[in-house]
Structure formats: structure tokens, C-alpha cells
Design a protein that fits this description.
The protein is mostly helical and 246 residues long. It has two domains: 101 residues, Serine Threonine Protein Phosphatase 5, Tetratricopeptide repeat; 135 residues, Serine Threonine Protein Phosphatase 5, Tetratricopeptide repeat (Alpha Horseshoe), CATH 1.25.40.990. Helix content is 70%, strand content 4%. The chain contains 13 helices and three strands; from the N terminus they run H-H-H-H-H-H-H-H-H-E-H-H-E-E-H-H. Strands 1-3-2 form a three-stranded antiparallel beta sheet. Strand 2 and strand 3 form a beta hairpin. Helix 2 packs antiparallel against helix 4, helix 5 packs across helix 6 and helix 10 runs parallel beside helix 12. This is Regulatory particle non-ATPase. It comes from Orbilia oligospora.
């Protein structure tokens, strides 16, 4: 497609400038050009005579996936990420230097893999620390880490509620990975927990008859109680979504 190089250049400029409103129409036009050039879903046969075309397809689909992240459009992200991976795989099979450069994303690949391992181990404190602002290898990860932390926090809260009648607010702050007691109170109100005398009182749960425990042991015991397959099952999916970025 004769105008594909021009579209490719314009799209890179628009994305670099963070002009996502401009990038969207350019992306649509560029994807149509890729489709007409038979590289939107590339094969070795279609790019054997023009590897540069596939490299441009990779860039366009990568920008599409990243733009979707910035716009919180998970559906478009999934589509573009899948196409981006396909382009990378074909480039890699061709053995081009460009592909080798693309696959040398050690930190980007290592990050979701490490999160997944920590989730399997039940090392939720490590997961929380690694997802804090400035700790991710790129800002595009932040959308997914927010979802991961929210889900993890919700599951911890549910398990703590089932395990104990009450917890001190200060311990709940550490357990739920919240920064301030004000955030704990807001979180508790959202879940209709009873707050009085410096403690959070959970609604009775018919499945559990847990007795209150000393304050110093609350956090440790609660974290042991939540180390279950249920939390891992619910959160591991988000770790896998993180991996799609790369």
C-alpha cells in the first residue's frame, strides 16, 4: 500500500505527542491499509518480499494497543495486542535484527512473570509493593496493576471478614494495603462494615465461627487465612492480562 509509510510516520508522531484523539482515526486508516496489504494478520508468505511492511504493521498494532490502554478500552487492547504478538512472532521466525531487538524486553516480560509467581506463593505484600506508582517498568502497566490491587484487596477483605468478627483499624490498614486510616474507613463504609471504638466489626458469617484474636496477631493470622486458591484464581487472570502488554 503506497500510503502506508506516510500513515506509519504520522501515527508515530501523533502517538509520541500523546494526541490520542488524532491517533484513533489514523489507526483506523492504517489498519485498513494493513488489511489491503494482507499484513493485518501476517504470514511468512505475505512479508517474504517486503519485511519492512511487517515491521510497520508491528508498530501500528503496538500503538493501537498502547492507545487503547491510555483510553481504558480493554476490548480494543485485546485485539491489537493479539495482532501485535502475531507480527512479532512472524518477525522472530524471519530472524531479523529488528525482531531480536523487540524480544529483548527483559524487564517488561520479567515484571508480570514475577507478579504471577508472588501470587502463587501468596506473597501479597511483594505484589502490592511492586504495583505502587513508580515501581512498574512502564506507565502502561498501571492500568492493569490498579485492577490487580483492587481485586486482591477485595478478596483479602472478604477472607478477613469470614475469619474474624473484628479487626483494629490500624491492622486493617496494613492488611488491606491502604496508606491511611481514612482510606480504611472509606473502604469499610463501602462494604457496610460497622466502625466503632477504633475497630472494624464485620457482619456475621454463617460459615465461620471465628473468635477475636489479640491485636498483635491479627494481620499475620488474617494473611494466613487468605492464602487460598480462591484469591490466586481470581487474581492470576489479571497477571496474565499484564503479560499481554509485552
Amino acid at each position: 500500500m503506497s500510503d502506508l509509510p506516510t500513515l506509519h510516520t504520522k501515527l508515530i508522531s501523533s502517538f509520541t505527542a500523546r494526541s490520542h484523539s488524532t491517533s484513533l482515526p489514523l489507526l483506523s486508516t492504517a489498519k485498513l491499509a494493513l488489511l489491503k496489504s494482507s499484513v493485518l494478520v501476517p504470514t511468512q508468505a505475505t512479508i517474504s518480499t517486503n519485511p519492512q511492511l511487517l515491521s510497520q504493521a508491528r508498530d501500528i498494532l503496538e500503538i493501537g494497543a498502547l492507545t487503547s490502554i491510555y483510553l481504558s478500552d480493554t476490548e480494543s487492547f485485546s485485539r491489537d495486542a493479539a495482532g501485535f504478538h502475531t507480527a512479532l512472532e512472524v518477525l522472530n521466525s524471519e530472524g531479523s535484527g529488528d525482531a531480536e531487538k523487540g524480544w529483548q524486553w527483559g524487564d517488561f516480560v520479567r515484571y508480570p512473570v514475577t507478579l504471577e509467581r508472588w501470587l502463587m506463593e501468596g506473597s501479597y505484600d511483594k505484589v502490592w509493593e511492586a504495583t505502587r506508582k513508580g515501581k512498574t517498568p512502564a506507565e502502561e502497566f498501571d492500568v492493569f496493576t490498579k485492577i490487580l490491587v483492587q481485586t486482591l484487596r477485595s478478596e483479602i477483605a472478604t477472607s478477613a471478614q469470614r475469619a474474624y468478627p473484628s479487626l483494629p483499624i490500624s491492622n486493617a490498614k496494613n492488611l488491606l494495603f491502604l496508606d491511611t486510616e481514612k482510606e480504611v474507613l472509606q473502604f469499610a463504609r463501602e462494604r457496610d462494615w460497622d466502625i466503632r471504638d477504633g475497630r472494624i466489626y464485620f457482619p456475621p458469617d454463617e460459615e465461620y465461627d471465628g473468635a477475636d484474636i489479640p491485636d498483635t496477631a491479627s494481620v499475620t493470622a488474617a494473611k494466613s487465612a487468605i492464602h487460598s486458591g480462591t484469591i490466586i484464581e481470581n487474581t492470576i487472570g489479571y497477571a496474565n492480562e499484564l503479560e499481554q502488554i509485552v
